[in-house]
What we know:
It is a single chain. A six-stranded mixed β-sheet has the order 1-3-2-6-5-4, with no helix packed on it. The chain has one domain (20-82). The model has no long low-confidence stretch (mean pLDDT 84). By secondary structure, it is mostly beta strands. Strand 4 (48-53) and strand 5 form a beta hairpin. It is 0% helix and 44% strand.
Amino acid sequence: xxxxxxxxxxxxxxxLHNEQLVDAVLQGGPVSFPETLRExxxxxxxxxxxxxxxNGYEHFERCADEAPDNTPIVFQWSFSTRIAE
Length: 85
């Protein structure tokens, strides 16, 4: 049985509950970023995906406005941030 895709941590917490979720693929980033997190679900309008990783977050930016039908939206890694202690 395939693993279900996780919903990425994106945008403000005030999102509408009925906003459409779509498949996404996260490309690039540190070699320590797990393959299991590279396929996820995001809100259709998201331009940035922020994923918790180690002691911080990995940030990915949307590559194109549209994706062909039934293909995931591609997000390319842009930078890392660390959580302040």
